[in-house]
């Protein structure tokens, strides 16, 4: 149900920007599923469109680097684009896959790394004792 408020004088803006959207639902579901998958080794069965399908984790790593717990991998489930995930002390770090197969992060935005592990290590080097800010919270 939509709440009736005036925002920027546009009712259409409110309809477009309120409530649960498919994007928010899928983002939340992927984040929750990715946490569950990265926490396991190997594969996890997930319910996709009423049936069970295998989701696998590739390039998985889990280690302590300079006193920080880093872990992640590439979550690949049928019907969904592979998701690159990096966590630093259980805080999700925003990762972007480049066209050449390298990755960059929101912390080291203008550097490319050959693996998720080296990207995570570089982010720890840059952050020091700080925590990564969730994507969408800060703006350039």
Structure description:
There is one protein chain. The chain is α+β, with helices and mostly antiparallel strands. The protein has a single domain (13-127), classed as protein ne1242 domain like (protein ne1242 fold, 2-Layer Sandwich), CATH 3.30.1880.10. 25% of the residues lie in helices and 32% in strands. A hairpin with a 5-residue loop joins strand 6 and strand 7. It comes from Actinokineospora fastidiosa. It holds the Pfam family MelC1. Belongs to the melC1 family.
Order of helices and strands: HHEEEEEEEH
Number of DSSP helices?
Answer: 3
Percentage of residues assigned to helices: 25-40%
Q: Rg to the nearest angstrom?
A: 18 Å
What's the short story on this structure?
The chain has 140 residues and is of the alpha+beta class.
Features:
copper ion binding, single chain, alpha+beta, 25% helix, disordered N terminus, 5-stranded antiparallel beta sheet, TAT_signal, protein ne1242 fold, 140 residues
Produce the secondary structure layout.
Blueprint lengths: L10 H6 L5 H17 L4 E6 L2 E15 L2 E9 L6 E6 L2 E3 L1 E3 L5 E3 L10 H12 L13
Antiparallel strand pairs: 1-2, 2-3, 3-4, 4-5, 6-7
């Amino acid at each position: 149900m939509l709440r009736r408020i005036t925002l920027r004088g546009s009712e259409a803006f409110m309809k477009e920007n309120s409530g649960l959207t498919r994007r928010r639902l899928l983002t939340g579901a992927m984040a929750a599923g990715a946490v569950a998958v990265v926490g396991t080794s190997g594969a996890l069965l997930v319910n996709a469109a009423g049936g069970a399908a295998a989701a696998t984790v590739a390039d998985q790593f889990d280690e302590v680097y300079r006193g920080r717990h880093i872990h992640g991998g590439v979550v690949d489930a049928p019907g969904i684009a592979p998701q690159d995930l990096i966590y630093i002390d259980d805080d999700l770090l925003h990762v972007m896959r480049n066209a050449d197969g390298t990755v960059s992060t929101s912390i080291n935005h203008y550097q490319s790394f050959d693996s998720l592990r080296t990207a995570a290590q570089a982010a720890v080097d840059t952050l020091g004792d700080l925590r990564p800010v969730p994507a969408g919270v800060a703006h350039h």
